[in-house]
């Protein structure tokens, strides 16, 4: 089987990427051969060609998805810049992981709920979140759907059935199971999609969520974005299993391992998993093998813990280049059309930014107390009055040191 | 004497104790080679190796649960929870296991450890990188809770915490991690747990604070002094054990108390302090005991300046109490 570079690093000489010794592969108790049982599924070949018999993504969706991937990338790059300029407080994006994020969301039905981790902004946009609204979230301003309550990149978008993002890792996994369970009880054709990183597979909620889903054959699709890193911790320090997909076996569900930089493969795996779930065949765990090309977030500097030579081999596997190669192979995209898409995307971001930044930078004072309960209790009502009078008495109450 | 910030002081304390006591191990997410997301464990992996500076999988319950086993078997673990907001997946281990092990085994076993965690807001961290959960733990008998405000105390208190026979929650004020600098002696020294520090003497109003909020309270009492109100400021440093005598002594002198904390007001540690003062100093009180705290909301993102009980709000309370 074709060995991924990623895993060859993992197993290189029985050492992890930092040269620390791992339990030799041959001495592991695994009675099975995960690389054989969970082969890395691909649809797109390196030269952009594809076995079209294995691809059911409608042709008319190819260009819109390509455009969305380009938008997603351009957005991440621009927002990282904005964060450096101090115009937004924080950013966490999906550079290198766009095919996983968008391919999975595309593989679901429109009525399906999405339970995101924190890198799936592309999926929110696919589900109709207006770009300017997303930017308001990053600014936490008066136009923010979350009323300035959450950190940037923790959007929720109910019209798109996109659940609310939480920082605590893995909490969304059992929640998605509950939603799928509820849909079955209510006899709705709805299969939730839940995203998480490979680091999340170490958390209690991963085990709980998959176990509940397996025991009750709950309709749900689990997408593990195996991007190789949980901040500074490499994947081989999260699990001694050879793949993440094989964890499905122990929960009594189907596991798949796909090339996460191959939009068509991710789409295909998700579409099939969704169909099985809807047909009552239970959940699927899909491991998308991809790579986190940048730091964990704008708060992180990966140079401290990750040698550049680990990242370089992934550059030529860029999911956007991969899809572009395919579009060119199919005669659906020329260089000049590609350039036009990139220009249009940049202009779209610029216009959305102008729109978002025109709004007042803070939501109103009372928004601080909104939504703690459906109706404020006496504490929130009294404390709002206390805050109003404190701000009126001394405007410094509304400014952190150094804020204008 | 070297001038360190709080992170460097924490690092220095860990290094000092690890050199002295081979049973001390550090564990947590990203604490190894990387040295922690705030760099508090920087250099320890190089000096003490992967057996004593352990990068764990991403599971707080697993971190604390394995620390219990290590402690039972004679190591002295110092687990790091990356942000105090992420301590909740470990709540079962901390509240039901760590806190009760000695008691439930009739003293046959104990699991001393120091759970370090950066806490608090003012860093634009929103709900999940800003909370101050100290009250949950003070409310759990069996746990000690320490919150330093400055580098000197951070080092001395952390060393004492590591040597303590009981489990200690050690909350580090991340807002002043780098901003608070001060002289820190080289080598080992202990600051006993349960001793408040009077950082300013005064006769009119007692102000109680800890951690990052001590800095806001300090600014407020200075401004109060300019406005003619003479405050006494106590940095509690340790909430459990609590230096109730120092509080009593001060409030009996001033007759007035303002309590400052960042956590939400309802059932915050201020409620306990207020009750204690009322019980012990009733006949000396000249004004209502007043709390200046975070509001009863999740920690917000955009309006965090408004949420935090900073100097202007503390000053207001001091004036009201003084004028009562
Ligand atoms: C319960 C919990 N513990 C710790 C953290 C701090 N933290 C944020 S992201 C992260 C790594 C997550 O890695 P992974 O699940 O692989 O997702 P990725 O960021 O790689 O997409 C950590 C440790 C957290 N958010 N929640």
Describe the structure.
The complex is a heterodimer of chains A (404) and B (324). Chain A is of the alpha/beta class. Chain A has two domains: 32-357, Thiamin diphosphate (ThDP)-binding fold, Pyr/PP domains (Rossmann fold), CATH 3.40.50; 370-398, no CATH class. Helices cover 41% and strands 8% of the residues of chain A. Chain A has 14 helices and eight strands. Chain A has helices at residues 5-11, 34-37, 59-84, 98-106, 121-126, 131-139, 172-185, 204-215, 247-250, 263-278, 308-315, 319-329, 335-357, 378-393, and strands at 40-41, 114-115, 193-197, 221-226, 229-230, 233-234, 254-259, 284-289. Chain A has a six-stranded parallel beta sheet. In chain A, helix 3 crosses helix 13 (335-357). The model of chain A has no long low-confidence stretch (mean pLDDT 94). Chain B folds into two domains: 3-183, Thiamin diphosphate (ThDP)-binding fold, Pyr/PP domains (Rossmann fold, 3-Layer(aba) Sandwich), CATH 3.40.50; 197-323, Rossmann fold (3-Layer(aba) Sandwich). Helices cover 37% and strands 20% of the residues of chain B. In chain B, strands 9-11-10-13-14 form a five-stranded mixed beta sheet, sandwiched between helices. Chain B has a four-stranded mixed beta sheet with strand order 5-7-6-12. Chain B is globular, with a radius of gyration of 19 Å. The mean pLDDT of chain B is 98. At the A-B interface, helix 14 of A face helix 11 and helix 12 of B. The complex binds thiamine diphosphate. Thiamine diphosphate sits between chains A (119, 167-169, 196-200, 225, 227, 229-231, 292, 296) and B (29, 58, 60, 82, 86, 89).
């Amino acid at each position: 089987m074709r060995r991924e570079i990623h895993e060859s690093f993992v197993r290189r000489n029985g050492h992890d990427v930092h040269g620390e010794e791992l339990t030799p592969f041959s001495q592991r108790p695994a009675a099975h051969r995960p690389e054989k049982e969970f082969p890395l599924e691909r649809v797109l070949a390196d030269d952009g060609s594809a076995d079209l018999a294995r691809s059911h993504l409608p042709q008319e969706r190819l260009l819109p998805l390509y455009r969305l991937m380009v938008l997603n990338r351009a957005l991440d790059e621009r927002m990282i810049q904005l964060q450096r300029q101090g115009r937004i407080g924080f950013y966490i994006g999906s550079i290198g992981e766009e095919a996983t994020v968008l391919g999975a969301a595309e593989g679901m039905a429109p009525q399906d709920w999405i339970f995101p981790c924190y890198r799936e902004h592309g999926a929110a946009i696919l589900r109709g979140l207006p770009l300017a609204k997303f930017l308001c979230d990053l600014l936490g301003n008066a136009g923010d759907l979350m009323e300035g309550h959450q950190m940037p990149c923790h959007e929720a978008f109910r019209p798109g059935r996109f659940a609310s993002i939480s920082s605590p890792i893995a909490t969304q996994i059992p929640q998605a199971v509950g939603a799928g369970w509820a849909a079955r009880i209510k006899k709705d054709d709805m299969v939730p999609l839940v995203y998480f990183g490979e680091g999340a597979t170490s958390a209690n909620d991963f085990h709980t969520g998959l176990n509940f889903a397996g025991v009750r054959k709950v309709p749900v699709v689990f997408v593990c974005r195996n991007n190789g890193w949980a901040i500074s911790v490499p994947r081989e320090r999260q699990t001694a299993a050879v793949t993440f997909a094989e964890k499905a076996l122990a929960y009594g569900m189907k596991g798949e391992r796909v090339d996460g930089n191959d939009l068509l493969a991710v789409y295909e795996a998700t579409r099939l998993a969704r169909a099985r779930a809807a047909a009552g065949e239970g959940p699927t765990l899909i491991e998308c093998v991809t790579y986190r090309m940048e730091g964990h977030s704008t708060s992180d500097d990966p140079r401290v813990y990750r040698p550049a030579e680990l990242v370089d081999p992934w550059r030529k596997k860029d999911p956007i280049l991969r899809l572009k190669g395919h579009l060119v192979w199919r005669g659906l995209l020329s260089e000049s059309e590609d350039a036009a898409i990139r220009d249009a995307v940049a202009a779209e971001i610029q216009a959305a930014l102008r729109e978002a930044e025109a709004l007042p930078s803070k939501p109103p004072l009372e928004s601080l107390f909104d939504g703690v309960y459906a109706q404020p209790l006496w504490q929130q009502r009294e404390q709002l009055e206390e805050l109003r009078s404190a701000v009126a008495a001394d405007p410094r109450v509304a400014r952190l040191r150094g804020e204008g | 004497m070297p001038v360190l910030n709080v992170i460097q002081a924490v690092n220095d304390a860990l290094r000092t104790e690890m050199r002295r006591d081979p049973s001390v191990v550090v564990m947590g997410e990203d604490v190894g080679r990387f040295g922690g997301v705030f760099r508090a464990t920087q250099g320890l992996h190089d000096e003490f190796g992967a057996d004593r500076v352990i990068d764990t999988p991403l599971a707080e319950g697993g971190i604390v649960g394995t620390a219990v086993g290590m402690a039972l078997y004679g190591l002295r673990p110092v687990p790091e929870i990356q942000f105090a907001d992420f301590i909740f997946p470990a709540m079962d281990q901390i509240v039901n296991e760590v806190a009760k092990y000695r008691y439930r085994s009739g003293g046959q076993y104990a699991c001393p450890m120091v759970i370090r965690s950066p806490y608090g807001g003012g860093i634009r961290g929103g709900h999940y990188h800003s909370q101050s959960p100290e009250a949950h733990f003070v409310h759990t008998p069996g746990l000690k809770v320490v919150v330093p405000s400055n580098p000197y105390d951070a080092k001395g208190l952390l060393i004492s915490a590591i040597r303590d026979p009981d489990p200690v929650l050690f909350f580090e004020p991340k807002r002043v991690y780098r901003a608070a600098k001060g002289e820190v002696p080289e080598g080992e020294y202990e600051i006993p747990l349960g001793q408040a520090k009077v950082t300013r003497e005064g006769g009119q109003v007692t102000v109680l604070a800890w951690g990052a909020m001590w800095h806001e309270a300090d600014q407020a009492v200075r401004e109060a002094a300019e406005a003619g109100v003479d405050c006494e400021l106590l940095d509690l440093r340790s909430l459990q054990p609590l230096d109730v005598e120092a509080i009593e002594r001060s409030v009996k002198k001033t007759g007035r108390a303002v309590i400052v904390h960042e956590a939400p007001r309802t059932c915050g540690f201020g409620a306990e302090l207020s009750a204690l003062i009322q019980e012990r100093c009733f006949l000396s009180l000249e004004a209502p005991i007043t709390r200046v705290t975070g509001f009863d909301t999740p920690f917000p993102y955009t309006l965090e300046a408004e949420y935090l009980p900073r100097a202007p709000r503390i000053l207001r309370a001091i004036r009201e109490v003084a004028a009562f």
